Amino acid sequence: MKLNYFRFIRREAGNMTIKISAFAMMAGLLQGMIMVIINGAAEKFPEKGLNLRYLIMFIICISGFILAKRYSLAMTANLIQHIVFSIRLRFLDKIRKTGLLAFEGLGKSQIYTVLAENTETIFDASRLISNAGSSAVMLIFSFLYIGHLSLTAFFLSIVIICGGVSIYLFNQTATGKDLTECLKKENEFFDSVNHLLDGFKEIKMNTTKSRDLYEGRIQQISTEARDINIRTEFRFIDNYIFAQAFFYILLATIIFLLPQITDLAYGIIINITAVVLFMVGPLGNIVEALPLVARADVAIINIETLEKNLDAAIDAHATDAVDRPRPQTGFDAIQLENIAFSYMDPDRNQIFSLGPIDLDIHAGEVLFIVGGNGSGKSTLLKILAGLYYPHSGRMLLNDRVLEATHYVGYRNLFSIIFTDFHLFDRLYGLEKIDPQKVWELLDIMELSEKTGFAEDRFTNIRLSTGQRKRLALIASYLEDKPILLFDEVAADQDPKFRKYFYEVMLQELKQRGKTVIAVTHDDRFFHAADRILKMEYGRIVSLEDRAQGADDRQ
Predict the structure, then answer these.
(1) Which ranges of 97-150 does DSSP label H, i.e. alpha helix?
(2) Closest of 181, 218, 194 to residue 107, by C-alpha
(3) Which residues contact 226 (CB under 8 A, 6 or more apart)?
(4) Is 355 left (phi over 0), alpha (psi -120 to 50) or beta?
(5) pLDDT tens digits, residue range 368-406?
(6) Where are the domains positioned within the chain?
(7) Whether 87 contacts 119, CB under 8 Å
């Protein structure tokens, strides 16, 4: 057992742990004093009358024990809750500051496991560990008391305790390895569940694929995780039973062996036996806490691994930026000069390359991007929006070279709707929303019978794909950004709305001075664009200026 838990809590909580530990130790000492007082009172039991002195000491100690114990447990619960929610918020803050390319490489299942399961494991462990801490102090006090009664009994107990603890920790080492393997399988299981949920339509259409995913992957991983969990639980059970049996071995040693090797008086042996019996509860608390400490250790490794990955993925240049263009101030032109970008697999092998790209985008124009699947259209949009940093070349805004520290402000010039867009139920980032304007747009988009707007949120976002895109268009329209990027927004729409989108909506946006860059395959509406850019294999193969006629420029 590496005791990552204690190192982690000390780091997260700082000096507060010292105060809590002090009260836990005080509770343990007072619990030990209660044992001594009861033992002492029992020795005086034949005397007539109330032993007022022992009674007063008992009342003082039990009152102090209750207060110290409650404070340590309550403050531990309060501290751990603050730590858990602080971790969740810290991780989510880091996630939102992560670069898109790095974020796409992170596993969602690991994030969910850390934010839910692992943090909950730490909280569950804390409740028992705080209790076990005061119990450990009480056990130490008990052994010292046994040493006061008999050095022979003390050393005999220590030898047995050390032997038992060594066996226990040896077994726990194997358990820790199983827990780590179990956690790995849990992450694999949730990865496969994500495939089931995200690919539900495809699974419904292909029974062979459905059966292979379920039986060949989900069921197999679940079975492996179950077997590891069962093996781990069996180890915990064996350790728990060993700890229980070990206590009885200690008790038997005091009763059967100690009188044979010493000439202690009968009353002393009875006292030592009573002390060992007092140790039952505290020892049980420690034994119960140790499996959770082991689980917490593994959970903390998972938390620290994810945080390390998030720290490596954070878009540090943009996060720490100080020299940023002011957002939403408009622009004259964006220039891409010799821009190149490549996707890499985990072994750093090139999968797909974009560029070199040379392109000028002017304020107030409507630019269509066309090309087949895999031609690089969406990648170009992500470069344009500042979501990907180019690997070579440079981008200029109003003839000023964009540095990495400028990207946060630069991104705020854009409103985007990608093919895999997420539809928010609220208009985040917008202040002083005019509900009447929202309702007008819902009417225009023919959505007012499908959803509404109340209490600053849309009442329903469970819509068809085409309806969801129209609702996303409303949000994009209300954001009022200088540049709008649309990736196949008109797809999944009926002919009537397509015509409205190209011939009315885009032209109104242009009249308002907005720049629209849209990926499309609707050649019937190419006349709505000022320029049409065609891509193949990551390159621009033609750039047609519709205003000047069919003028192709390589």
Answers:
(1) 100-104, 108-112, 119-149
(2) 194
(3) none
(4) left
(5) 999 988 888 989 999 999 889 999 999 999 889 988 888
(6) 4-314, 363-389+404-548
(7) yes
Report how far apart, in Å, the C-alpha atoms of 453 and of each of 248, 459, 505 are. 69, 6, 21
CB 479 within 8 A of CB 428: no
Spatial separation of the C-alpha atoms in residues 284 and 206, rounded to whole Å? 54
What whole-number distance in Å separates Cα of residue 505 and Cα of residue 514? 11
Pairing between β-strand 366-371 and β-strand 531-536 as defined by DSSP bridges: parallel
Architecture of domain 4-314: Up-down Bundle (1.20)
Q: What's the pTM?
A: 0.70
Q: How many helices (H) and strands (E) does the chain have?
A: 20, 12
CA distance 380 to 17: 52
Which amino acid appears at position 483 of this protein? I
Class level of CATH domain 363-389+404-548: alpha beta
DSSP 546: G
Q: In the chain, what are the helix, strand and coil shares in percent, each to the nearest 5?
A: 65, 15, 20
From 475, 493, 495, select the one nearest 484 (Cα to Cα): 475
pLDDT tens string 424-442: 888 888 888 888 999 999 9
